[in-house]
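Subject: Protein entry, chain in single-letter code together with its fold tokens

Category: Structural biology, sequence-to-fold work with a learned token vocabulary.

Notation: Tokens come from a learned vocabulary of local backbone shapes, not from coordinates.

Start of record: The labelled sequence and token lines come straight after this line.
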Amino acid sequence: MRPDFISRVFRLVAIIPMFCTLAPMLQAQDRAATISLNKWAAISLPFRPTAITATATTFWVCGADEMIAKSSDGGKHWKIMHENHDGEVLMAIYFPNETIGFAAGSNGRFISTGDGGETWKTWAPDTQTNLEISFADDEHGLRRTDSGAAITSDGGVHWAPVVFPADAGDFQPPFQVLGIAALSATNLTVSFAQSYGEHIYLSTTDDGESWKTTRLDNIYAGSLYTRGGEYWAFGIEYVDRQNRGGHGVGVALHSIDGRNWLHGAPSPHEFYGCAASGCILDTGGFADLSGTVPRFASLPTDAQPSRRWAFVAESICSVDLTLECASATPSESPSALVLPNRPIAGSYVIAAFSPTPSLMAGCLVCPLTPFALAKNKLEQTPVMVNRGPGPPQKMYMPGLNADLGIRFVIRKDGSVDRIDVSGAPQKEIEAAIRSDVRSWLFTPLRENGAPVERKSNVQLRVTCMAFGGNDEATCGFHFPQISPPPKP
């Protein structure tokens, strides 16, 4: 979460970060934050966080410099449990129970613990970037990389690619891996998206010896987790699609084998970020959809969590550019955000994130976040519209198009510094892209095994559009051209 972005774009209640008191910079340092009922608290960490998970009692966060931190008191205090300065960037962390844990990241890096994080083992089975991991125990698991999904039966030392069976019928590549989940030593499932059509679940009940495909009509539910001895998948279901064109509703599904799926509790709203414990609703608040009826928790409304969050008891912590935590209070209904009057397509996601391959080589996290711009900052932009029969006609609407040049330095830990923006027609546009670029994270570059800084540059296009009844325009950035970074 980035408070400067939230206050600038969404005009929500201003964030007043409650910064923690820092202890001496030691290997096992504690970081404390005061968590109140009505504000998000910022936690200061000595590394850039990228991922978060939770067991029944403990939050775990990982990130740059191969650092891992934990909190056993609901996010109030944090302790560094592992680090490797000038090491790789850990992109995923997973604990199948309180004792066994895995983390993985750039250049094939894997680390694991069998004693609750007190000691860690490090290795790299290959050089692929690990984006997501899921383990059923200390040996059996799945991983998601830039190239797809893979399965292991020896704790991640060796991996075999997950491929569609020859008799998969209409399910033909190309595919994009959306989610992975290891339920047991023999029962594992991967969710895929085709280039068109509903999402597909590919599951095995014999530790990868054979796989079976399942597609549910009108279901797009790629977020995949395990909870209570079942798989859980979250997404969108299109109702009355065949008869009336359909409308989308949030859907939660559960299965004991990845092949036969049942509906969980109906969600009152669509959601944008889910984990094993439930989902964050588009309109604010949290919903647990694992019962026959939803169970809600109210969250502070000064901000929304990113897509990377976790629950422990009545606390929630979220990872974006920083780590922030808050209380999650059980309630009869979730808290609600006031949505602005602007033409944002889809959900009003604040700093939403999904670790998918980027257009920029080596980029691990490169969000380009929509933002608002006052209508008096706009020009008149030509657009083509359909007005009944006949060809589209040109008309002018409040809008703006501009090409930007961004130069920056990628530091040894993969984070970005020394940002220079040229071509921005408004200071608000320059501030918005600076905010995004500051949050970018790259695979650390090495020369002869030693980490080095590097210079890079990209070309971006910004497009803003508003309609007559809108108070503000919505702007977005796009990649028209990528310049590869020169060698240092």
Notes: The first strand starts at residue 30 and ends at 32. The chain has three helices and 40 strands. Confidence is low (pLDDT under 50) at residues 1-28, 344-357, 481-488. Residues 427-438 form the longest helix (12 residues).
